[in-house]
Design a protein that fits this description.
This protein is an alpha/beta fold. The protein has 2 domains: 108 residues, Roll (Urease, subunit C, domain 1), CATH 2.30.40.10; 290 residues, Alpha-Beta Barrel (TIM Barrel), CATH 3.20.20. 37% of the residues lie in helices and 22% in strands. Strands 1, 2, 3, 4, 5, 15, 16, 17 and 18 form a 9-stranded mixed sheet that branches. The protein has a 5-stranded parallel sheet with strand order 10-11-12-13-14, sandwiched between helices. The chain has a 4-stranded parallel sheet with strand order 6-7-8-9, sandwiched between helices. Helix 2 packs across helix 15, helix 7 runs parallel beside helix 8 and helix 12 crosses helix 14. The protein starts with a strand and ends with a helix.
Length: 428
């Protein structure tokens, strides 16, 4: 496809107008303000449109959309214990498949081209990702309150089996390793996970310091903060995606900054909705930590919309500090794109440059709320809505265009959700 006369955000996050962007064999093959001499198939008229790299939702539980609006008004621990864990105990492969497709449809329509997911049924998740065409880093973390060793955990996925099972996904589905959290694991298990990940070169995905209770209990029970505890167990010797980090202390930020392979994923909507607090993002950015954005699950958000996360992240940082320039549109946009791609180990996406994967999104700027436009990135962060997405492309394949899905039968998804949801609720 050739995007003609389109405005785009370049690899330095500057705005370039009246450009030609060509995609071929799944990658960005041509970038110029001059028309190419050769063809790229379909010519897409980019007048009034903006081309951006696809968003990376770096912390998600996609299938939890089936619990959207379930368990409202509860703090995290009661929400989990009283509502979420009982509901999740009723999942089966069929219901989670359709709930997963619902999540894929929502993210694709919101301009997300890759996401990091922590949940159950990895084989079902791979099928959903492969069929929808999106990209995903996935882990199914062990939860352990006794002395069960890692390799006897129910969801322990040996690396060689991962490769055999999902090698046909052509890199769109990457299995990771993980821990649910400090409070749902034992110290021997944490050390085993750290050692196994290091030995096999797999990435880790962990909840950390989501609530004050979690942070303070770790200090009380282990005599150190959660960050120091994970460091002592060897966790940070790996590529790690730490979700939330709301209650990290200044010393913890300094600890995380020592490890260039550690990323933090900020989930502002979920953290506020559950009353968990506000992550000190400015301090993390200043320390040089790779900060990303995530939605968390749609049951604690209640959507999978990265536009909203960029907007809220800016409002929190500015409102909390009284500094109207506390975090810039460029920093926020990087958190939503290239920073997440780096955390996922996908170094061939996240910015628009020749040779990168054609993971691209087109926004329609011919909307009342986007006119006038003094600065494109400012409009994207503070004014744009998910409804402005008119095309989502992954590896050069168009997955969504002008409100229609190319890989998902959305009406069938709605029908199946209507069928399975009452059956689960009947069992609760």
């Amino acid at each position: 496809m050739l995007f003609k006369d389109i405005t785009y955000i370049d690899e330095n996050f500057n705005t370039v107008e009246h450009a030609y962007i060509g995609t071929k064999n799944g990658v960005i093959d041509y970038i110029s303000t001059e028309k190419p001499d050769w063809g790229y198939g379909e010519v897409y008229d980019g007048a009034g449109k903006v081309l951006i790299p696809g968003f990376v939702n770096n912390h998600c539980h996609a299938a939890m959309g089936l619990m959207r609006g379930y368990g409202e008004g509860l703090p995290l621990q009661r929400w989990l214990d009283e509502k979420i864990f009982p509901f999740e105990s009723k999942w089966d492969e069929n219901s989670i498949y359709w709930a997963g497709l619902l999540g894929m449809a929502e993210m694709i329509a919101c301009g997300t081209t890759s996401f990091s997911d922590m949940y159950f049924f990895d084989a079902v998740a791979e099928k959903v990702v492969r069929e929808s065409g999106i990209k995903c880093n996935f882990d199914n973390p062990p939860i352990c309150f006794d002395g069960t060793p890692l390799k006897k955990q129910k969801y322990f996925p040996p690396v060689d089996e991962m490769v055999k099972k999902f090698g046909h996904s052509k890199g769109r589905f990457l299995e990771e390793f993980g821990l649910h959290a400090e409070y749902t694991s034992t110290e021997p298990l944490v050390k085993e996970v750290a050692a196994y990940a290091k030995e096999n070169g797999v990435r880790l995905h962990i909840h950390m310091d989501e609530t004050k209770l979690e942070h303070e209990n770790c200090k009380k029970n282990r005599g150190m903060t959660t960050a120091k505890y994970f460091e002592s167990c060897g966790i940070f010797e790996n590529n790690v995606n730490l979700a939330h980090c709301v209650w990290v202390e200044d010393e913890d930020i300094a600890t995380l900054a020592k490890y260039p392979n550690v990323s933090v994923t900020h989930c502002p909507s979920s953290n506020m909705k559950l009353g968990s607090g506000f992550a000190p993002i400015r301090k993390m950015l200043d320390a040089g930590i790779n900060v990303c954005l995530g939605t968390d699950g749609a049951s604690s958000n209640n959507n999978l919309n990265i536009f909203e996360e960029m907007h809220l992240a800016a409002m929190i940082c500015r409102g909390n500090t009284g500094d109207a320039d506390n975090v810039s549109p460029k920093e926020l946009f990087k958190m939503a794109t290239v920073n997440g791609a780096k955390s996922q180990g996908r170094f061939d996406t996240g910015v628009i440059k020749k040779g990168n994967k054609a993971d691209l999104v087109v926004l329609d700027f011919n909307k009342p709320h986007l006119v006038p436009c003094y600065d494109v990135l400012t409009n994207i962060v503070f004014s744009a809505q998910s409804s402005d997405v008119v095309l989502t492309m992954v590896d050069g394949d168009v997955l969504y265009r002008d409100g229609k899905y190319k890989t998902i039968d959305i009406n069938k998804v709605y029908d199946k959700i209507s069928y399975y949801l009452p059956k689960i609720l009947e069992q609760l």
